[in-house]
User: Which sequence fits this backbone?
Protein backbone atom coordinates (compact mmCIF):
# COMPACT_ATOMS: atom_id res chain seq x y z
CA UNK A 1 0.00 0.00 0.00
CA UNK A 2 1.06 3.55 -0.63
CA UNK A 3 1.44 5.66 2.48
CA UNK A 4 -0.09 9.14 2.66
CA UNK A 5 3.34 10.71 2.45
CA UNK A 6 4.18 8.78 -0.70
CA UNK A 7 0.82 9.71 -2.16
CA UNK A 8 1.49 13.39 -1.45
CA UNK A 9 4.89 13.14 -3.11
CA UNK A 10 3.31 11.46 -6.11
CA UNK A 11 0.70 14.11 -6.80
CA UNK A 12 3.22 16.82 -6.10
CA UNK A 13 4.93 15.90 -9.38
CA UNK A 14 3.30 17.36 -12.46
CA UNK A 15 2.73 13.96 -14.05
CA UNK A 16 1.02 12.78 -10.89
CA UNK A 17 -1.23 15.82 -10.92
CA UNK A 18 -2.22 15.16 -14.55
CA UNK A 19 -3.29 11.60 -13.80
CA UNK A 20 -5.07 12.54 -10.56
CA UNK A 21 -7.00 15.17 -12.57
CA UNK A 22 -7.74 12.60 -15.25
CA UNK A 23 -9.05 10.02 -12.78
CA UNK A 24 -11.12 12.69 -11.04
CA UNK A 25 -12.55 13.75 -14.39
CA UNK A 26 -13.44 10.18 -15.35
CA UNK A 27 -15.00 9.35 -11.96
CA UNK A 28 -16.95 12.62 -11.80
CA UNK A 29 -18.35 12.34 -15.29
CA UNK A 30 -19.12 8.64 -14.69
CA UNK A 31 -21.32 9.71 -11.79
CA UNK A 32 -22.73 12.94 -13.22
CA UNK A 33 -23.13 12.13 -16.92
CA UNK A 34 -24.94 8.83 -17.48
CA UNK A 35 -23.51 6.77 -20.30
CA UNK A 36 -20.21 8.66 -20.43
CA UNK A 37 -18.11 5.88 -18.91
CA UNK A 38 -19.27 2.55 -20.32
CA UNK A 39 -17.54 -0.38 -21.97
CA UNK A 40 -18.76 1.00 -25.30
CA UNK A 41 -17.73 4.63 -24.91
CA UNK A 42 -14.30 4.04 -23.35
CA UNK A 43 -12.79 2.23 -26.38
CA UNK A 44 -13.89 5.09 -28.63
CA UNK A 45 -12.17 7.62 -26.38
CA UNK A 46 -9.09 5.39 -26.13
CA UNK A 47 -8.88 5.07 -29.92
CA UNK A 48 -8.95 8.82 -30.39
CA UNK A 49 -6.57 9.34 -27.49
CA UNK A 50 -4.18 6.95 -29.22
CA UNK A 51 -4.07 9.18 -32.30
CA UNK A 52 -3.91 12.54 -30.49
CA UNK A 53 -1.46 11.17 -27.91
CA UNK A 54 1.12 10.30 -30.57
CA UNK A 55 0.96 13.83 -31.96
CA UNK A 56 1.13 15.23 -28.42
CA UNK A 57 4.28 13.19 -27.71
CA UNK A 58 5.92 14.67 -30.80
CA UNK A 59 4.76 18.10 -29.66
CA UNK A 60 6.31 17.42 -26.22
CA UNK A 61 9.70 16.75 -27.80
CA UNK A 62 9.39 20.04 -29.71
CA UNK A 63 8.30 22.02 -26.63
CA UNK A 64 11.23 20.57 -24.71
CA UNK A 65 14.02 21.20 -27.16
CA UNK A 66 12.69 22.45 -30.50
CA UNK A 67 13.58 26.02 -29.57
CA UNK A 68 16.38 27.98 -31.20
CA UNK A 69 18.07 31.26 -30.42
CA UNK A 70 15.29 33.01 -32.33
CA UNK A 71 12.38 31.61 -30.35
CA UNK A 72 10.83 28.78 -28.38
CA UNK A 73 9.85 25.56 -30.11
CA UNK A 74 6.33 24.56 -31.01
CA UNK A 75 5.19 22.58 -34.02
CA UNK A 76 2.20 24.14 -35.76
CA UNK A 77 2.56 21.89 -38.82
CA UNK A 78 1.42 18.58 -37.29
CA UNK A 79 -2.29 18.98 -38.11
CA UNK A 80 -1.54 19.86 -41.74
CA UNK A 81 0.88 16.92 -41.91
CA UNK A 82 -1.84 14.49 -40.81
CA UNK A 83 -4.03 15.69 -43.68
CA UNK A 84 -1.12 15.85 -46.12
CA UNK A 85 -0.22 12.22 -45.34
CA UNK A 86 -3.76 11.10 -46.10
CA UNK A 87 -3.72 12.91 -49.45
CA UNK A 88 -0.23 11.79 -50.48
CA UNK A 89 -1.10 8.22 -49.43
CA UNK A 90 -4.31 8.34 -51.47
CA UNK A 91 -2.44 9.67 -54.49
CA UNK A 92 0.13 6.88 -54.24
CA UNK A 93 -2.66 4.29 -54.04
CA UNK A 94 -4.22 5.73 -57.19
CA UNK A 95 -0.83 5.52 -58.90
CA UNK A 96 -0.88 1.81 -58.12
CA UNK A 97 1.59 1.51 -55.26
CA UNK A 98 1.05 -1.24 -52.72
CA UNK A 99 -0.06 -0.47 -49.16
CA UNK A 100 3.34 -1.21 -47.61
CA UNK A 101 5.10 1.02 -50.16
CA UNK A 102 2.65 3.80 -49.33
CA UNK A 103 3.50 3.49 -45.64
CA UNK A 104 7.22 3.62 -46.35
CA UNK A 105 6.98 6.57 -48.73
CA UNK A 106 4.75 8.51 -46.32
CA UNK A 107 7.23 7.92 -43.49
CA UNK A 108 10.08 9.13 -45.71
CA UNK A 109 7.97 12.15 -46.61
CA UNK A 110 7.47 12.73 -42.87
CA UNK A 111 11.24 12.73 -42.35
CA UNK A 112 11.54 15.20 -45.25
CA UNK A 113 8.91 17.58 -43.85
CA UNK A 114 10.47 17.39 -40.40
CA UNK A 115 13.86 18.13 -41.96
CA UNK A 116 12.36 21.16 -43.69
CA UNK A 117 11.15 22.46 -40.30
CA UNK A 118 14.56 21.74 -38.82
CA UNK A 119 16.47 23.30 -41.70
CA UNK A 120 14.48 26.52 -41.80
CA UNK A 121 14.59 26.88 -38.00
CA UNK A 122 18.26 26.13 -37.44
CA UNK A 123 19.99 27.10 -40.68
CA UNK A 124 17.84 30.03 -41.83
CA UNK A 125 17.30 31.21 -38.21
CA UNK A 126 13.56 31.65 -38.66
CA UNK A 127 11.66 31.42 -35.34
CA UNK A 128 10.30 27.85 -35.08
CA UNK A 129 6.72 28.99 -34.56
CA UNK A 130 6.68 30.94 -37.82
CA UNK A 131 8.65 28.19 -39.59
CA UNK A 132 6.21 25.44 -38.72
CA UNK A 133 3.26 27.66 -39.58
CA UNK A 134 4.62 28.45 -43.05
CA UNK A 135 5.46 24.78 -43.57
CA UNK A 136 1.86 23.97 -42.66
CA UNK A 137 0.75 26.34 -45.45
CA UNK A 138 2.98 24.42 -47.88
CA UNK A 139 1.65 21.08 -46.61
CA UNK A 140 -1.94 22.22 -47.07
CA UNK A 141 -1.14 23.68 -50.49
CA UNK A 142 0.44 20.42 -51.69
CA UNK A 143 -2.50 18.41 -50.33
CA UNK A 144 -5.06 20.61 -52.07
CA UNK A 145 -3.14 20.56 -55.35
CA UNK A 146 -3.08 16.75 -55.35
CA UNK A 147 -6.71 16.69 -54.23
CA UNK A 148 -7.07 12.92 -53.76
CA UNK A 149 -8.81 11.31 -50.81
CA UNK A 150 -9.28 7.53 -50.90
CA UNK A 151 -9.98 4.94 -48.23
CA UNK A 152 -6.86 3.59 -46.57
CA UNK A 153 -5.38 0.19 -47.58
CA UNK A 154 -7.18 -2.76 -45.96
CA UNK A 155 -4.47 -3.69 -43.51
CA UNK A 156 -4.28 -0.10 -42.28
CA UNK A 157 -8.03 0.01 -41.78
CA UNK A 158 -7.97 -3.28 -39.91
CA UNK A 159 -5.21 -2.10 -37.59
CA UNK A 160 -6.75 1.35 -37.06
CA UNK A 161 -10.14 -0.13 -36.19
CA UNK A 162 -8.90 -3.30 -34.49
CA UNK A 163 -9.32 -3.95 -30.79
CA UNK A 164 -7.80 -6.27 -28.30
CA UNK A 165 -10.64 -7.90 -26.31
CA UNK A 166 -9.72 -7.88 -22.63
CA UNK A 167 -12.98 -9.17 -21.18
CA UNK A 168 -14.31 -6.09 -19.42
CA UNK A 169 -13.26 -3.53 -21.98
CA UNK A 170 -11.72 -3.64 -25.45
CA UNK A 171 -8.42 -1.87 -26.01
CA UNK A 172 -8.08 -0.38 -29.52
CA UNK A 173 -4.80 -1.07 -31.32
CA UNK A 174 -4.22 2.66 -31.70
CA UNK A 175 -4.03 2.98 -27.90
CA UNK A 176 -1.67 0.01 -27.71
CA UNK A 177 0.46 1.69 -30.33
CA UNK A 178 0.42 4.84 -28.19
CA UNK A 179 1.61 2.84 -25.15
CA UNK A 180 4.47 1.45 -27.24
CA UNK A 181 5.39 4.93 -28.53
CA UNK A 182 5.18 6.31 -24.99
CA UNK A 183 7.48 3.56 -23.74
CA UNK A 184 9.99 4.29 -26.50
CA UNK A 185 9.75 8.03 -25.86
CA UNK A 186 10.22 7.53 -22.13
CA UNK A 187 13.22 5.28 -22.72
CA UNK A 188 14.70 7.76 -25.18
CA UNK A 189 14.29 10.73 -22.83
CA UNK A 190 15.17 9.12 -19.50
CA UNK A 191 17.60 6.33 -20.30
CA UNK A 192 19.75 7.48 -23.22
CA UNK A 193 22.46 10.06 -23.75
CA UNK A 194 20.25 11.57 -26.46
CA UNK A 195 17.53 12.20 -23.87
CA UNK A 196 20.03 13.76 -21.46
CA UNK A 197 21.10 16.09 -24.25
CA UNK A 198 17.48 17.06 -24.91
CA UNK A 199 16.92 18.03 -21.28
CA UNK A 200 20.28 19.78 -21.12
CA UNK A 201 19.46 21.85 -24.19
CA UNK A 202 15.93 22.51 -22.95
CA UNK A 203 17.22 23.72 -19.61
CA UNK A 204 19.88 26.07 -20.95
CA UNK A 205 20.74 26.23 -24.64
CA UNK A 206 23.94 28.27 -24.15
CA UNK A 207 25.25 25.99 -21.42
CA UNK A 208 24.43 22.93 -23.54
CA UNK A 209 26.42 24.40 -26.43
CA UNK A 210 29.37 25.15 -24.17
CA UNK A 211 29.18 21.56 -22.93
CA UNK A 212 29.77 20.43 -26.51
CA UNK A 213 26.22 19.44 -27.50
CA UNK A 214 25.53 20.04 -31.17
CA UNK A 215 22.32 21.93 -30.52
CA UNK A 216 21.40 22.52 -34.17
CA UNK A 217 21.63 18.82 -34.99
CA UNK A 218 19.58 18.05 -31.90
CA UNK A 219 16.87 20.54 -32.91
CA UNK A 220 16.86 19.06 -36.40
CA UNK A 221 16.25 15.56 -35.04
CA UNK A 222 13.49 16.83 -32.74
CA UNK A 223 11.43 18.08 -35.70
CA UNK A 224 11.93 14.79 -37.52
CA UNK A 225 10.63 12.89 -34.47
CA UNK A 226 7.58 15.16 -34.29
CA UNK A 227 6.79 14.79 -38.01
CA UNK A 228 7.25 11.00 -38.07
CA UNK A 229 4.92 10.63 -35.08
CA UNK A 230 2.36 12.83 -36.85
CA UNK A 231 2.61 10.57 -39.92
CA UNK A 232 2.07 7.43 -37.81
CA UNK A 233 -0.92 9.14 -36.16
CA UNK A 234 -2.14 10.00 -39.66
CA UNK A 235 -2.16 6.29 -40.63
CA UNK A 236 -4.52 5.57 -37.75
CA UNK A 237 -6.65 8.63 -38.50
CA UNK A 238 -6.83 7.63 -42.19
CA UNK A 239 -7.72 4.03 -41.39
CA UNK A 240 -10.56 5.24 -39.20
CA UNK A 241 -12.26 7.16 -41.98
CA UNK A 242 -14.63 5.05 -44.05
CA UNK A 243 -14.80 7.56 -46.87
CA UNK A 244 -12.19 10.31 -46.53
CA UNK A 245 -12.91 13.66 -48.17
CA UNK A 246 -10.91 16.78 -48.91
CA UNK A 247 -12.91 18.59 -46.22
CA UNK A 248 -10.44 18.97 -43.39
CA UNK A 249 -10.62 20.59 -40.00
CA UNK A 250 -7.45 20.63 -37.99
CA UNK A 251 -8.24 18.73 -34.80
CA UNK A 252 -4.62 17.93 -33.97
CA UNK A 253 -2.41 21.04 -33.87
CA UNK A 254 -3.98 23.00 -31.02
CA UNK A 255 -5.26 20.00 -29.01
CA UNK A 256 -1.81 18.34 -29.20
CA UNK A 257 -0.22 21.56 -27.99
CA UNK A 258 -2.79 21.85 -25.20
CA UNK A 259 -2.27 18.17 -24.31
CA UNK A 260 1.49 18.61 -24.07
CA UNK A 261 1.15 21.75 -21.93
CA UNK A 262 -1.46 20.13 -19.64
CA UNK A 263 0.93 17.17 -19.46
CA UNK A 264 3.36 19.43 -17.62
CA UNK A 265 5.89 20.28 -20.31
CA UNK A 266 7.04 23.88 -20.22
CA UNK A 267 8.39 25.80 -23.20
CA UNK A 268 12.10 25.06 -23.12
CA UNK A 269 12.26 24.88 -19.33
CA UNK A 270 13.87 21.47 -19.00
CA UNK A 271 10.70 20.12 -17.38
CA UNK A 272 8.11 17.68 -18.62
CA UNK A 273 7.94 14.40 -20.45
CA UNK A 274 5.95 12.00 -22.59
CA UNK A 275 3.94 10.27 -19.85
CA UNK A 276 2.32 13.55 -18.85
CA UNK A 277 1.57 14.30 -22.50
CA UNK A 278 -0.43 11.07 -22.82
CA UNK A 279 -2.46 12.06 -19.75
CA UNK A 280 -2.94 15.53 -21.23
CA UNK A 281 -4.11 14.11 -24.55
CA UNK A 282 -6.46 11.76 -22.70
CA UNK A 283 -7.94 14.68 -20.75
CA UNK A 284 -8.49 16.62 -24.00
CA UNK A 285 -10.19 13.70 -25.81
CA UNK A 286 -12.24 12.68 -22.80
CA UNK A 287 -13.41 16.25 -22.28
CA UNK A 288 -14.45 16.55 -25.92
CA UNK A 289 -16.44 13.31 -25.79
CA UNK A 290 -18.21 14.32 -22.56
CA UNK A 291 -19.08 17.73 -23.97
CA UNK A 292 -20.35 16.17 -27.19
CA UNK A 293 -22.51 13.83 -25.10
CA UNK A 294 -23.88 16.78 -23.15
CA UNK A 295 -24.72 18.51 -26.42
CA UNK A 296 -22.24 21.34 -25.85
CA UNK A 297 -21.52 23.38 -28.95
CA UNK A 298 -18.11 24.30 -30.30
CA UNK A 299 -18.21 27.62 -28.40
CA UNK A 300 -18.65 25.99 -24.99
CA UNK A 301 -16.02 23.38 -25.85
CA UNK A 302 -13.59 26.15 -26.67
CA UNK A 303 -14.22 28.06 -23.44
CA UNK A 304 -13.87 24.92 -21.31
CA UNK A 305 -10.71 23.89 -23.14
CA UNK A 306 -9.23 27.32 -22.37
CA UNK A 307 -10.43 27.20 -18.75
CA UNK A 308 -8.93 23.73 -18.09
CA UNK A 309 -5.68 24.75 -19.72
CA UNK A 310 -5.45 27.97 -17.69
CA UNK A 311 -6.46 26.22 -14.46
CA UNK A 312 -3.79 23.55 -14.78
CA UNK A 313 -0.97 25.91 -15.80
CA UNK A 314 -1.96 28.17 -12.88
CA UNK A 315 -1.55 25.22 -10.51
CA UNK A 316 1.83 24.42 -12.08
CA UNK A 317 2.93 28.04 -11.72
CA UNK A 318 1.79 28.32 -8.10
CA UNK A 319 3.40 25.02 -7.09
CA UNK A 320 6.79 26.08 -8.36
CA UNK B 1 30.41 40.55 -45.28
CA UNK B 2 30.66 43.39 -47.72
CA UNK B 3 26.99 43.48 -48.64
CA UNK B 4 26.09 43.77 -44.99
CA UNK B 5 28.41 46.68 -44.33
CA UNK B 6 27.44 48.37 -47.59
CA UNK B 7 23.82 48.27 -46.54
CA UNK B 8 24.40 49.69 -43.11
CA UNK B 9 23.63 53.34 -42.87
CA UNK B 10 23.25 55.48 -39.78
CA UNK B 11 19.72 55.81 -38.42
CA UNK B 12 18.03 53.05 -40.37
CA UNK B 13 19.00 49.47 -39.65
CA UNK B 14 19.89 47.09 -42.48
CA UNK B 15 16.85 44.86 -42.06
CA UNK B 16 14.52 47.83 -42.31
CA UNK B 17 16.28 49.14 -45.40
CA UNK B 18 16.06 45.76 -47.16
CA UNK B 19 12.39 45.41 -46.27
CA UNK B 20 11.57 48.82 -47.70
CA UNK B 21 13.49 48.07 -50.89
CA UNK B 22 11.28 45.00 -51.27
CA UNK B 23 8.17 47.07 -50.50
CA UNK B 24 9.08 49.50 -53.27
CA UNK B 25 10.05 46.74 -55.72
CA UNK B 26 7.02 44.51 -55.08
CA UNK B 27 4.46 46.63 -56.97
CA UNK B 28 6.66 46.36 -60.10
CA UNK B 29 6.56 42.59 -59.80
CA UNK B 30 2.80 42.83 -59.49
CA UNK B 31 2.66 45.09 -62.54
CA UNK B 32 4.75 42.59 -64.55
CA UNK B 33 2.31 39.81 -63.67
CA UNK B 34 -0.74 41.90 -64.49
CA UNK B 35 -0.70 45.57 -65.59
CA UNK B 36 -3.96 45.95 -63.68
CA UNK B 37 -1.91 45.81 -60.48
CA UNK B 38 -0.79 49.40 -61.01
CA UNK B 39 -4.23 50.87 -60.48
CA UNK B 40 -5.62 53.16 -57.83
CA UNK B 41 -8.34 50.69 -56.91
CA UNK B 42 -5.70 48.04 -56.29
CA UNK B 43 -3.68 50.45 -54.16
CA UNK B 44 -6.88 51.08 -52.26
CA UNK B 45 -7.38 47.35 -51.63
CA UNK B 46 -3.80 46.87 -50.41
CA UNK B 47 -3.98 49.83 -48.03
CA UNK B 48 -7.30 48.75 -46.57
CA UNK B 49 -5.94 45.25 -46.00
CA UNK B 50 -2.78 46.67 -44.48
CA UNK B 51 -4.48 48.71 -41.74
CA UNK B 52 -5.67 45.87 -39.45
CA UNK B 53 -2.49 43.90 -40.20
CA UNK B 54 -0.24 46.81 -39.22
CA UNK B 55 -2.12 47.55 -36.02
CA UNK B 56 -2.21 43.93 -34.85
CA UNK B 57 1.51 43.70 -35.66
CA UNK B 58 2.16 46.69 -33.38
CA UNK B 59 0.05 44.95 -30.73
CA UNK B 60 2.21 41.86 -31.05
CA UNK B 61 5.37 44.00 -31.06
CA UNK B 62 4.43 45.37 -27.63
CA UNK B 63 4.35 41.82 -26.27
CA UNK B 64 7.50 40.82 -28.18
CA UNK B 65 9.60 43.79 -27.10
CA UNK B 66 9.23 42.87 -23.44
CA UNK B 67 10.27 39.28 -24.30
CA UNK B 68 6.73 37.97 -24.17
CA UNK B 69 4.23 36.89 -26.80
CA UNK B 70 0.47 37.24 -27.24
CA UNK B 71 -1.17 34.32 -29.02
CA UNK B 72 -4.62 35.75 -28.25
CA UNK B 73 -4.42 38.79 -30.58
CA UNK B 74 -6.19 37.03 -33.47
CA UNK B 75 -9.00 35.80 -31.23
CA UNK B 76 -9.23 39.31 -29.72
CA UNK B 77 -9.70 40.75 -33.24
CA UNK B 78 -12.61 38.40 -33.89
CA UNK B 79 -14.05 39.17 -30.46
CA UNK B 80 -13.80 42.89 -31.19
CA UNK B 81 -15.59 42.52 -34.53
CA UNK B 82 -18.30 40.45 -32.83
CA UNK B 83 -18.90 43.14 -30.17
CA UNK B 84 -18.91 45.90 -32.79
CA UNK B 85 -21.34 43.97 -34.99
CA UNK B 86 -24.05 44.59 -32.37
CA UNK B 87 -23.52 48.36 -32.73
CA UNK B 88 -24.42 48.76 -29.05
CA UNK B 89 -24.96 52.51 -29.29
CA UNK B 90 -25.99 53.88 -32.67
CA UNK B 91 -25.51 57.23 -34.37
CA UNK B 92 -22.73 59.79 -34.15
CA UNK B 93 -22.40 59.55 -30.35
CA UNK B 94 -22.32 55.77 -30.66
CA UNK B 95 -19.23 55.62 -32.86
CA UNK B 96 -16.71 56.76 -30.21
CA UNK B 97 -18.60 54.86 -27.49
CA UNK B 98 -18.29 51.62 -29.49
CA UNK B 99 -14.57 52.21 -29.87
CA UNK B 100 -14.18 52.95 -26.15
CA UNK B 101 -16.03 49.75 -25.29
CA UNK B 102 -13.70 47.54 -27.34
CA UNK B 103 -10.61 49.32 -26.02
CA UNK B 104 -11.87 48.79 -22.46
CA UNK B 105 -12.48 45.09 -23.13
CA UNK B 106 -9.02 44.87 -24.70
CA UNK B 107 -7.48 46.39 -21.57
CA UNK B 108 -9.21 43.75 -19.41
CA UNK B 109 -7.95 40.93 -21.67
CA UNK B 110 -4.43 42.35 -21.65
CA UNK B 111 -4.51 42.84 -17.89
CA UNK B 112 -5.58 39.22 -17.39
CA UNK B 113 -2.75 38.05 -19.69
CA UNK B 114 -0.24 40.28 -17.93
CA UNK B 115 -1.24 39.25 -14.41
CA UNK B 116 -1.26 35.56 -15.36
CA UNK B 117 2.22 35.86 -16.81
CA UNK B 118 3.91 38.16 -14.33
CA UNK B 119 2.06 37.73 -11.03
CA UNK B 120 1.15 34.03 -11.20
CA UNK B 121 4.15 33.07 -13.31
CA UNK B 122 2.47 31.19 -16.17
CA UNK B 123 4.55 31.08 -19.35
CA UNK B 124 3.38 33.68 -21.91
CA UNK B 125 2.67 30.95 -24.47
CA UNK B 126 0.50 28.87 -22.16
CA UNK B 127 -1.33 31.90 -20.74
CA UNK B 128 -2.23 33.54 -24.04
CA UNK B 129 -2.92 30.17 -25.67
CA UNK B 130 -5.55 29.50 -22.98
CA UNK B 131 -6.88 33.03 -23.48
CA UNK B 132 -7.18 32.33 -27.21
CA UNK B 133 -9.63 29.49 -26.53
CA UNK B 134 -11.63 31.47 -23.99
CA UNK B 135 -12.02 34.45 -26.36
CA UNK B 136 -12.81 32.18 -29.30
CA UNK B 137 -15.53 30.48 -27.27
CA UNK B 138 -17.10 33.76 -26.13
CA UNK B 139 -16.96 35.12 -29.68
CA UNK B 140 -18.64 32.01 -31.11
CA UNK B 141 -21.33 32.33 -28.45
CA UNK B 142 -22.25 35.92 -29.27
CA UNK B 143 -21.64 35.73 -33.03
CA UNK B 144 -21.70 32.12 -34.34
CA UNK B 145 -21.72 33.19 -38.00
CA UNK B 146 -20.41 36.20 -39.88
CA UNK B 147 -23.03 38.93 -39.74
CA UNK B 148 -24.46 41.86 -37.81
CA UNK B 149 -24.02 45.52 -38.50
CA UNK B 150 -21.14 47.82 -37.72
CA UNK B 151 -21.79 51.43 -36.69
CA UNK B 152 -23.00 53.15 -39.88
CA UNK B 153 -21.01 56.28 -39.01
CA UNK B 154 -17.74 54.35 -38.83
CA UNK B 155 -18.51 52.44 -42.03
CA UNK B 156 -19.34 55.70 -43.84
CA UNK B 157 -16.07 57.24 -42.65
CA UNK B 158 -14.12 54.17 -43.75
CA UNK B 159 -15.81 54.15 -47.15
CA UNK B 160 -15.16 57.85 -47.80
CA UNK B 161 -12.84 57.41 -50.79
CA UNK B 162 -12.73 60.34 -53.23
CA UNK B 163 -11.07 59.19 -56.48
CA UNK B 164 -10.69 55.77 -54.85
CA UNK B 165 -8.21 57.19 -52.31
CA UNK B 166 -8.80 55.49 -48.92
CA UNK B 167 -8.49 58.66 -46.83
CA UNK B 168 -9.24 57.22 -43.39
CA UNK B 169 -7.09 54.14 -43.99
CA UNK B 170 -4.08 56.25 -45.03
CA UNK B 171 -4.53 58.62 -42.07
CA UNK B 172 -4.78 55.62 -39.74
CA UNK B 173 -1.61 54.03 -41.12
CA UNK B 174 0.37 57.26 -40.90
CA UNK B 175 -1.06 58.08 -37.47
CA UNK B 176 -0.23 54.71 -35.94
CA UNK B 177 3.23 54.67 -37.53
CA UNK B 178 4.03 58.16 -36.19
CA UNK B 179 2.61 57.63 -32.71
CA UNK B 180 4.36 54.27 -32.33
CA UNK B 181 7.64 55.78 -33.56
CA UNK B 182 7.29 58.72 -31.17
CA UNK B 183 6.44 56.37 -28.31
CA UNK B 184 9.50 54.19 -28.90
CA UNK B 185 12.01 56.91 -29.70
CA UNK B 186 10.93 59.93 -27.74
CA UNK B 187 9.18 58.87 -24.55
CA UNK B 188 10.58 57.56 -21.28
CA UNK B 189 7.91 54.87 -21.14
CA UNK B 190 8.94 53.50 -24.54
CA UNK B 191 12.55 53.38 -23.44
CA UNK B 192 11.58 51.61 -20.21
CA UNK B 193 9.63 48.96 -22.11
CA UNK B 194 12.55 48.32 -24.47
CA UNK B 195 15.03 48.21 -21.59
CA UNK B 196 12.95 45.61 -19.75
CA UNK B 197 12.93 43.49 -22.90
CA UNK B 198 16.66 43.96 -23.41
CA UNK B 199 17.74 43.09 -19.89
CA UNK B 200 15.28 42.76 -17.04
CA UNK B 201 17.89 42.69 -14.27
CA UNK B 202 19.71 45.80 -15.43
CA UNK B 203 16.55 47.82 -15.96
CA UNK B 204 15.37 46.78 -12.51
CA UNK B 205 18.53 48.21 -10.97
CA UNK B 206 17.95 51.39 -12.96
CA UNK B 207 14.65 51.77 -11.15
CA UNK B 208 12.20 50.38 -13.71
CA UNK B 209 9.64 47.92 -12.35
CA UNK B 210 9.70 44.99 -14.83
CA UNK B 211 6.41 43.52 -13.59
CA UNK B 212 4.55 46.77 -14.16
CA UNK B 213 6.18 47.32 -17.56
CA UNK B 214 5.37 43.83 -18.79
CA UNK B 215 1.78 43.97 -17.59
CA UNK B 216 1.44 47.39 -19.21
CA UNK B 217 2.83 46.03 -22.49
CA UNK B 218 0.20 43.28 -22.43
CA UNK B 219 -2.58 45.77 -21.68
CA UNK B 220 -1.52 47.90 -24.66
CA UNK B 221 -1.29 44.76 -26.82
CA UNK B 222 -4.82 43.79 -25.80
CA UNK B 223 -6.22 47.25 -26.60
CA UNK B 224 -4.45 47.47 -29.96
CA UNK B 225 -5.57 43.98 -30.98
CA UNK B 226 -9.17 45.05 -30.36
CA UNK B 227 -8.60 48.21 -32.43
CA UNK B 228 -7.18 46.03 -35.22
CA UNK B 229 -10.42 44.04 -34.95
CA UNK B 230 -12.34 47.28 -35.55
CA UNK B 231 -10.61 47.81 -38.89
CA UNK B 232 -11.05 44.17 -39.83
CA UNK B 233 -14.77 44.56 -39.11
CA UNK B 234 -14.90 47.75 -41.22
CA UNK B 235 -13.34 45.90 -44.17
CA UNK B 236 -16.00 43.20 -44.19
CA UNK B 237 -18.72 45.45 -42.67
CA UNK B 238 -19.70 42.65 -40.31
CA UNK B 239 -18.59 40.70 -37.26
CA UNK B 240 -16.74 37.43 -37.88
CA UNK B 241 -16.04 34.72 -35.32
CA UNK B 242 -13.04 33.26 -37.15
CA UNK B 243 -11.45 35.82 -39.50
CA UNK B 244 -9.13 37.16 -36.81
CA UNK B 245 -7.33 33.79 -36.52
CA UNK B 246 -5.63 34.44 -39.84
CA UNK B 247 -3.87 37.47 -38.41
CA UNK B 248 -2.18 35.69 -35.49
CA UNK B 249 0.88 34.38 -37.28
CA UNK B 250 1.05 37.33 -39.66
CA UNK B 251 1.21 39.54 -36.55
CA UNK B 252 4.35 37.67 -35.49
CA UNK B 253 5.84 37.41 -38.98
CA UNK B 254 5.47 41.14 -39.83
CA UNK B 255 7.59 42.47 -36.94
CA UNK B 256 10.21 39.74 -37.44
CA UNK B 257 10.46 40.52 -41.16
CA UNK B 258 10.85 44.17 -40.17
CA UNK B 259 13.81 43.50 -37.89
CA UNK B 260 12.12 42.98 -34.52
CA UNK B 261 13.96 40.42 -32.40
CA UNK B 262 11.75 37.77 -30.79
CA UNK B 263 14.25 37.85 -27.93
CA UNK B 264 12.98 41.32 -27.01
CA UNK B 265 14.41 44.80 -26.63
CA UNK B 266 14.51 45.70 -30.30
CA UNK B 267 11.76 46.92 -32.60
CA UNK B 268 10.93 49.84 -34.86
CA UNK B 269 7.77 51.41 -36.17
CA UNK B 270 9.02 51.82 -39.73
CA UNK B 271 10.29 48.23 -39.78
CA UNK B 272 6.94 46.80 -38.70
CA UNK B 273 5.12 48.94 -41.27
CA UNK B 274 7.51 47.62 -43.93
CA UNK B 275 7.13 44.03 -42.76
CA UNK B 276 3.34 44.27 -42.75
CA UNK B 277 3.38 45.97 -46.18
CA UNK B 278 5.53 43.17 -47.65
CA UNK B 279 3.13 40.52 -46.35
CA UNK B 280 0.11 42.47 -47.66
CA UNK B 281 1.72 43.04 -51.08
CA UNK B 282 2.78 39.40 -51.46
CA UNK B 283 -0.71 38.07 -50.87
CA UNK B 284 -2.19 40.77 -53.12
CA UNK B 285 0.24 40.05 -55.97
CA UNK B 286 -0.60 36.36 -55.74
CA UNK B 287 -4.30 37.05 -56.23
CA UNK B 288 -3.32 38.57 -59.59
CA UNK B 289 -1.25 35.52 -60.55
CA UNK B 290 -2.71 32.69 -62.64
CA UNK B 291 -1.80 30.15 -59.93
CA UNK B 292 -4.60 28.08 -58.38
CA UNK B 293 -5.44 28.93 -54.75
CA UNK B 294 -3.33 26.14 -53.13
CA UNK B 295 -0.39 27.12 -55.34
CA UNK B 296 -0.64 30.64 -53.98
CA UNK B 297 -0.42 29.36 -50.41
CA UNK B 298 2.78 27.50 -51.28
CA UNK B 299 4.39 30.47 -53.03
CA UNK B 300 3.34 32.83 -50.24
CA UNK B 301 4.81 30.49 -47.62
CA UNK B 302 8.10 30.25 -49.52
CA UNK B 303 8.32 34.03 -49.94
CA UNK B 304 7.64 34.52 -46.22
CA UNK B 305 10.36 32.00 -45.33
CA UNK B 306 12.82 33.81 -47.62
CA UNK B 307 11.97 37.19 -46.08
CA UNK B 308 12.32 35.79 -42.56
CA UNK B 309 15.59 34.08 -43.48
CA UNK B 310 16.89 37.48 -44.63
CA UNK B 311 15.82 39.02 -41.32
CA UNK B 312 17.57 36.19 -39.46
CA UNK B 313 20.71 36.60 -41.56
CA UNK B 314 20.98 40.26 -40.64
CA UNK B 315 20.33 39.66 -36.97
CA UNK B 316 23.29 37.26 -36.70
Assistant:
Amino acid sequence: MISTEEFKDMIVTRTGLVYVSLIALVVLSGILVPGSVTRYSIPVTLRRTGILGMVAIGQTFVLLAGGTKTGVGLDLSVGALVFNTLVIGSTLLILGFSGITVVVICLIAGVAWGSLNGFVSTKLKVPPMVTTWTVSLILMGVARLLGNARPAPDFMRNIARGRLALGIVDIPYSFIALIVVTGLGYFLLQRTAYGRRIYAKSDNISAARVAGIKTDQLTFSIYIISSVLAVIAAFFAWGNQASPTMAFTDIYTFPSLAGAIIGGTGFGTGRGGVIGAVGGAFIMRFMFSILARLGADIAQQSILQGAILLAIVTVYALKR
Amino acid sequence: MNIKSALSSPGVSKEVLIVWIVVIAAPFVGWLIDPGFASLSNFNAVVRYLVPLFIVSIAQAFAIMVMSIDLSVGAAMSFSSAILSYNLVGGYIGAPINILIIIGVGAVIGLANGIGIRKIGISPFAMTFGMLFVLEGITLTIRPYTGGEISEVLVAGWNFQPYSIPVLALITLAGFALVFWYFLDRTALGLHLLSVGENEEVSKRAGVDPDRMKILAHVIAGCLAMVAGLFMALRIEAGSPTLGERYLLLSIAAPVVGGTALSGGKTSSIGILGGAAVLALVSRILTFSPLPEPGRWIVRAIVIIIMLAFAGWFQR
About this structure: Residues 51 and 237 of chain A are 7 Å apart (CA to CA). Residues 215-240 of chain A form the longest helix (26 residues). DSSP finds 14 helices and two strands in chain A.
